[in-house]
Write a structure and sequence with these properties.
The complex is a heterodimer. By secondary structure, chain A is of the alpha+beta class. Chain A has 7 helices and 4 strands, in the order H-H-H-H-E-H-H-E-E-E-H. Chain A has a 4-stranded mixed β-sheet with strand order 2-1-3-4, with helices on one face. The longest helix of chain A is centred in the last third of the chain and has 15 residues. The two termini of chain A are about 20 Å apart. By secondary structure, chain B is α/β, with parallel strands linked by helices. In chain B, strands 2-1-5-3-4 form a 5-stranded mixed β-sheet, with helices on both faces. In chain B, strands 11-10-13-14 form a 4-stranded parallel β-sheet, sandwiched between helices. Classes of the chains: A alpha+beta, B alpha/beta. Chains A and B meet through helix 3 and helix 4 of A and strand 7 of B.
């Protein structure tokens, strides 16, 4: 479960410290630091938020308030493969809800969650700018379009095979 | 001098300094604009939309509490548009408010209730989502009911102003609510229990954890000997709960009222304020002459102590080891007084009446060994007096009982910022120089956030600082740590203005809080009492002589350490 470890690795801690040091004197730096921290850890666990609060000399509740205000920030760990199911208008009318249901069923988790082995996480997103290919999903930086529930299930099975878990 | 801006509010001309808000200008013109999220010196964010007014040059309605005035502006505060908007805002708030008014602590003393009545609101006009959040009763001092909260953020502002930040808004949109990070309970959070959030709350979402029922039970138990004692500042504020003017000293009526509740004895906690001074001044001189850890901080405020243990454990060695006057009194009663009167401490039920919610927490600290059985706030005492049907206003003055009645003025001013310092200086100076005569130390009085002074006594230079409000305490610690501040003795009280403005004091309507200087008016009652007292210095009190002759031998003796001193534990929290 190394992906879910709240404290992360020494390298992650070092990277976070560097980001805080670099931006702490800039007014309004909290958002930037949170974005960077999410990039480093994949999510924003309590340990990370405490480090940021202490580094900036603000309260944990202030940090947590910002984290929970913006939907881009996550309190839950993300998987090695981050699946984003587009629920934008075009995808939605083309059956994105069924695509999401198929992904959830295949992985046995709900949207916003991460599999226990830390390999996959599911989120929904708004338009990714590929409406011509609707319905689409992204896995990491890869876009998959013109999907059906069967096709998306097959794609995920492929990933599982690559990871040796199928 | 600032440029003056001329404007008209409801056709009344008014002139105010540039940068003033419409709300400030309206107050000057004696026009009341309703507010909810605004609280003088605490919160001004313009979020509740109650103070919306029409102003020339503005598109739509503007929030008077944050909108700046401009030359020639014409403001209307009471148009149909304003009234409709305010009414709808109130009805939206009521839609997700637990409307259990009859049983609410703040019934008849609630800003939402008052405004809803004034605007003829229908509390069920909008059907809100069902309210079913659990009440947070984790802490022995504050209870938080999320379903009564109207998200005005006044508690958040009060907590942030204390440099604590235990609570904040969580989430977004309809789901937004006030809570601690990661939905921690108050007890797990960085909360220090000062209760400033309670007195800031316009509704009943925050209140003290009441122990009134335990006190009634003890009063009704024939096998219990019940003793009450009252903290110095309670006499300066209790009258407010009975509509007496702010700053009325009701010591005599307070004693009479408590006696009518039926305890066996009513004592004066100013006695252990004097005792604190004897111990603390001795400790200070010991630290100065033996090159102990300096500077020394006072330790009579349990919220301050908790703040140090949680946020600045590195400062623990600087805290005086003296217990707070409340715990000294509890200790004194259950040792000296019980021994002297042949009472089994187990049969004694000790009730302290305090201006403070942190003192409720303090009685639960394990090292205090339950010396105080119940600590009730000024508000709780007022409620008990009302429940008992006692006509407070009509009572004849009565006196505290011996042996714990006669105090010095130094003990009395403990309830105001600077009071502990002044009382300690009176005694410490006399301990160092037997011929020292000064009793008034005006430099440490008043409600300035940080006060500093230097005194020379018997060849010793004593640099002192006094801070009230934890953000000012934070400022002092920062200065000590970065070498920009240098002191020998520092008094800290967690609440701005000291105990007279404590989290357990009566909650006055916004209209009074926004127009009166509560801190100064209440403190004045104590300073007047000090001035009228023949005994000004703690060491002159006959009670001190008796206690040291009969029991403790001398300040900081072995026995004194056993009963009157304590220790602290690091409890670092972020």
């Amino acid at each position: 479960m190394e992906h879910c470890a709240a404290c992360g690795t020494a390298e992650q801690a070092k990277a976070l410290k560097a980001v805080i040091e670099e931006s702490r004197s800039t007014p309004g730096c909290l958002m930037h630091i949170l974005q960077e921290a999410q990039g480093i850890y994949g999510y924003l666990p309590i340990g990370v938020q405490k480090t940021i609060a202490e580094g900036l000399g603000i309260s944990l509740s202030e940090v947590y308030g910002v984290v929970t205000f913006y939907s881009q920030f996550s309190l839950k760990p993300k998987g090695k493969h981050r699946i984003s199911v587009c629920l934008g208008t075009a995808c939605y009318v083309k059956g994105a809800d069924k695509i999401l249901a198929a992904v959830e069923k295949e992985l046995g988790i709900k949207c916003g969650e991460c599999t226990e082995d830390g390999l996959f996480s599911i989120d929904s997103c708004r338009c990714v700018g590929a409406c011509g290919l609707a319905p689409v999903i992204m896995i990491g930086e890869e876009v998959y379009g013109k999907l059906t529930p069967e096709k998306v299930t097959a794609i995920i099975k492929d990933y599982k095979k690559q990871e040796g878990v199928e | 001098m600032a440029n003056m801006i001329n404007l008209k509010i409801n056709n009344i001309p008014v002139s105010v300094p540039e940068g003033s808000t419409i709300l400030e200008a309206a107050r000057k013109a004696h026009i009341e604009i309703p507010t909810l999220c605004y609280l003088k010196d605490v919160s001004c964010v313009g979020s509740c939309r109650m103070c919306l007014v029409e102003a020339t040059g503005a598109r739509g309605l503007v929030a008077a509490c944050v909108y700046p005035v401009s030359e020639g502006m014409e403001v209307q505060t009471n148009t149909e548009k304003c009234r409709k908007s305010r009414k709808m805002s109130l009805e939206l708030m009521l839609s997700k408010h637990k409307k259990k008014c009859p049983s609410c602590e703040r019934n008849h003393n609630c800003e939402l209730q008052r405004l809803s009545a004034e605007y003829n609101c229908d509390e069920d006009y909008f059907e809100g989502e069902p309210l079913e959040h659990e009440v947070d009763t984790s802490a022995p001092y504050v209870v938080r009911d999320r379903d009564k909260c109207i998200n005005c953020n006044r508690c958040v502002a009060a907590c942030k102003k204390q440099s604590v930040g235990a609570i904040g808004p969580i989430g977004r949109g309809y789901a937004v609510h006030i809570g601690s990070a990661f939905e921690m309970s108050l007890m797990e959070s960085v909360c220090v229990g000062c209760g400033q959030c309670i007195v800031a709350c316009p509704v009943g979402a925050l209140k003290e954890r009441t122990t009134v029922d335990e006190v009634w039970a003890a009063l009704g138990d024939p096998n219990k000997k019940v003793v009450f004692f009252t903290a110095p500042s309670v006499r300066a504020t209790l009258g407010e709960a009975f509509d007496l003017p702010v700053g009325t000293n009701v010591e005599g009526k307070m004693v009479a009222a408590i006696r009518r509740l039926g305890p066996d004895h009513v004592f004066n906690m100013d006695i252990t304020a004097d005792l604190t001074i004897m111990e603390e001044a001795t400790e200070l001189i010991h630290r100065i002459t033996n090159k102990g850890v300096m500077p020394m901080f006072t330790s009579c405020c349990p919220a301050w102590v908790k703040f140090v243990e949680q946020k600045h454990p590195e400062m623990i060695p600087h805290l005086s080891t003296c217990k707070s006057p409340q715990e000294m009194f509890g200790g004194l009663l259950k040792t000296y007084w019980c021994e002297k009167n042949g009472i089994d401490p187990k049969d004694l039920f000790v009730v302290s009446v305090i201006p403070c919610t942190a003192k409720k927490y303090e009685c639960h600290r394990p090292e205090m060994k339950g010396e105080v059985d119940a600590a009730i706030t000024t508000r709780e005492l007022a409620r008990m007096i009302k429940t008992a049907g006692i006509k407070f206003e009509d009572l004849e003055d009565e006196k505290f009982e011996d042996p714990f009645s006669t105090c010095s003025g130094g003990g009395t001013i403990f309830g105001a910022t600077g009071g502990v310092m002044e009382a300690a200086l009176r005694v410490a100076a006399r301990m160092l120089d037997g011929k020292f005569e000064v009793v008034d130390f005006p430099e440490v009085r008043g409600t300035n956030p940080i006060k500093e002074a230097t005194y020379n006594v018997a060849g010793h230079q004593i640099r002192v600082a006094v801070a009230s409000g934890l953000s000012n305490a934070e400022e002092i610690i920062k200065g000590l740590q970065d070498g920009t501040r240098h002191y020998d003795f520092i008094e800290i009280m967690a609440c701005p203005g000291g105990c007279v403005n404590g989290g357990g004091q009566p909650t006055l309507p916004d209209s009074m809080r926004n127009s009166l200087d509560l801190k100064s008016l209440r403190a004045q009652a104590l300073y007047t009492s000090d001035k009228e007292n023949k005994l000004r210095c703690s060491n002159e009190s006959p009670v001190m002589k008796q206690l040291y002759d009969e029991y403790f031998k001398e300040p900081n003796s072995h026995k004194a350490h056993e009963v009157l001193h304590t220790s602290y534990k690091e409890d670092k929290r972020i």
